[in-house]
Amino acid sequence: MILVTGGSGQGKRGFSQGAFAKSGPGSRVVWCDGSKAGWDTFMREKWGWNFHLFIRRIMLGEVAVPLERMSSMLAQRLQEMELPWTQEARKGLASFLVQSLLEGNENRILVTEEIGCGIVPADPFERMYREETGRVCCLAAAEARQVWRVCCGLGQRIK
């Protein structure tokens, strides 16, 4: 997996296509949008963007997480929790999500926005969402073969 991160509107997808897409016939890149895709689609596709919004949709219950693939203890805990998930329910989610990404397509290009900078939101869910996204992205970066940060369309390899 290759993780590409950076601020909003910084050219992460364009950089990723230029740096990692093969050229020639049949090399068309199709992006899977985390703001719209379901679990199975997002886990299967090679090119994924808006990963931060995919995490948000999971936390809001808009994406059905396959509980049958989780450990029975985590699945039971998540079924018993009200949405949005509490901190207790999120304990195993980050590692499960990253493991699912790796099992789904180990050659994926995953693009996400940095959302933890700036003013701390007053809304408790927004704070929880930022923290959980950071936790998941830290685990994804640890497992990724490469990690890139993009600013003004220029990528800097950080791993």
From TrEMBL:
InterPro entries cross-referenced by the UniProt entry: CobU/CobP, P-loop_NTPase
GO terms assigned for molecular function: adenosylcobinamide kinase activity; nucleotide binding
GO BP: any one term: cobalamin biosynthetic process
Alphabetical list of Pfam families matching this protein: CobU
Protein name: Adenosylcobinamide kinase
Organism per entry: Clostridium porci
Lineage: Bacteria, Bacillati, Bacillota, Clostridia, Eubacteriales
